[in-house]
Structures are given as structure tokens and as C-alpha cells.
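REQUEST FORM: STRUCTURE PREDICTION
Request ID: SP-0412
Submitted by: Lab K.M.
Chain count: 1
Length (residues): 219
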Amino acid sequence: MLQKIYKLDINYLISMRDAEFKDKIYQFLVRNDKGATASEIAKDIISNRMTVTKYLEMMKIQDLVAYRGVGMAKLWSINPSPILTSFDNGENMLLKDVMNVMGEGVSVINKKMEIVWYNEKMAEWCGKLESNKGKHCYEVYQKRGSVCANCPTIQTFNSGSAKKAVQPGIDTKGKKRFFDLITTPIKDKKGNIIGVMEIVTSLDDYKRKMAELKDLLGK
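STATUS: Completed
RESULT:
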């Protein structure tokens, strides 16, 4: 019995040590959002490169980090989020299919205020995703050179909660429209906000549909 308890204690201590070590790596990468090599991480957290590499590979399996090749080295960085990455890589087709039949616009924005993805309804107003992906949302949606006034997406990034606002926009024909926006945060596994999803309703379309319904009911 004592031997069993001893083994449990050892396993618990190992688990706590692993969690603490991973957290040190994660926090270093948060502070260095451009990425870092295993050697740079090891130097900062006072460890050796082989140990850091082992933990990085473990964290990669958990979708916490990702890397890109730079010459012969691997440059490690925070994996924004499985959902954000799946949108960026063109994956998650089932979720995208659902969003395409909603009848509302859906837009995914990263922390740089860049467009990661939007659905077919947004494409009707803003043009093909391929032409706008990676551009700033305010550049595409409002033809501006800076963040929009009273931007609910910025408010969601700052507060971590859903926000709502009415915003103007310019469609592909140059027509000014008004949209009702509901924004909600996209978080990584650590609870950090790394993106925002916008649900967009055209008030012009809503008014038109209400007028058509009124005419239909009046007949």
C-alpha cells in the first residue's frame, strides 16, 4: 500500500514538474511572438536544448505550439488555436459549410486585425476571400486606413467578452451599407484571446425583408 502511494506521489511530482516546465516555455514564446529556436528558449529558462526540444515536441502534439523552418533551424511559436489554424489552413470544412448556410455574414479576425477567413455571405458584400485574406478588416470592410471608431472587435480583444455594434461598410459596388455586428472571442487552450469571430447582419437586407413580409401579410 505504501509503495502504491509512493508511486502516486512520484507521478504527481513528475506531472507538476512537466506542467511547470511547459509553462515556462509557453510564457517565453508569448513574450517573443516572432518565434524562437530551442536554443534561445533553453538559454532564457536556464535549461539545455535537448530537454527543451523534447518538451516542445510534446507541446506540439497538444496543439500548444507550432514551428516553421528557417534554414536548418526550427523557429517555434505559439499555435494561435486549433480553430484559428484550421480556418487559416483551409481545413474544418464541416464548420465552414454550416457557416455558409447561416444566412448571416461570418468573419474571423486575428489579433493584427487581419482577415483569416469569411463565409460566402461576406464574399457577396466584400469580394472573394482569396483577394482579401491577410488584409486588415477595416481596409476591406470600410475602405479605411485605420481601425474603425467604436470597433466591437477591438473591444472584444480588450475585454474578452462578446460585444455588439452597428457599423457602416462599403460593398464591392461602392454602396454604403449598415451592418449589425456581434463579436465573440476565440481563445487558445490557455484561455488567451487570439482571434475574434464576427457575426454580421446587413440592416439594409433586414429592412428589405421586413418590407416584403409586411406586403405579403397585407395581401
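NOTES: The first strand starts at residue 65 and ends at 70.
Reviewed by: T.R.
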